[in-house]
UniProtKB/TrEMBL annotation:
Superkingdom, taxonomy of origin: Eukaryota
Pfam families, per database record: RskA_C (PF10099)
GO CC aspect terms: plasma membrane
The Anti-sigma K factor RskA C-terminal domain, residue ranges: 10-136
GO molecular function: sigma factor antagonist activity
Gene Ontology terms describing biological process: regulation of translation
Protein name in the entry: Anti-sigma K factor RskA C-terminal domain-containing protein
Length: 153
């Protein structure tokens, strides 16, 4: 009889775990369905013109903070960018003081490119910048600054 009680107790524990897993699965499916829906109520926050870092650069750009039902985002667009060679890439940085935060990389097409980056809640950066990097794998700026602007953060 004790073997039957152990099997019954084991079966009950498995059923409980299965019910918890099913509930968690249902919750994850709801989150996934929500994330696939278009954002609603989009508002434009701060928008700043990105200025060339040196006089010989003809590139220009715009950095815009966008707020919607899914969070706060940074949209960076640039044009008249220098031509990329080999593995080079453009990288966007959010900077607070001397500390850069990678906001994404992009490859240009006919001198234009863009990045979309979701900001965390502690988005008190003071500068947004674009650099020309040797590749798209940098954790900190290694290349030449192309465009930059002060932001309120």
């Amino acid at each position: 009889m004790s073997v039957l009680k152990q099997q019954a107790a084991g079966s009950s524990a498995v059923q409980k775990q299965l019910a918890q897993a099913q509930a968690q699965n249902a919750q994850l499916q709801e989150q996934l369905a929500s994330s696939l829906q278009p954002a609603q109520g989009m508002q434009t926050g701060e928008a700043v013109k990105l200025s060339p870092a040196t006089q010989d650069i003809v590139a220009q750009g715009l950095a815009t903070i966008v707020i919607d039902s899914k969070g706060t985002h940074l949209v960076v667009q640039a044009e008249n960018l220098p031509t990329l060679e080999g593995n080079e890439a453009f990288q966007v940085w959010l900077i607070k003081g001397d500390t850069p935060q990678n906001a994404g990389t992009f490859l240009s097409h006919n001198g234009t490119g863009a990045v979309y980056y979701t900001l965390d809640s502690a988005n008190d950066y003071d500068t947004v910048a674009i650099t020309l990097e040797p590749d798209a794998m940098g954790d900190e700026p290694r290349g030449t600054m192309i465009l930059a602007a002060k932001i309120k953060g």
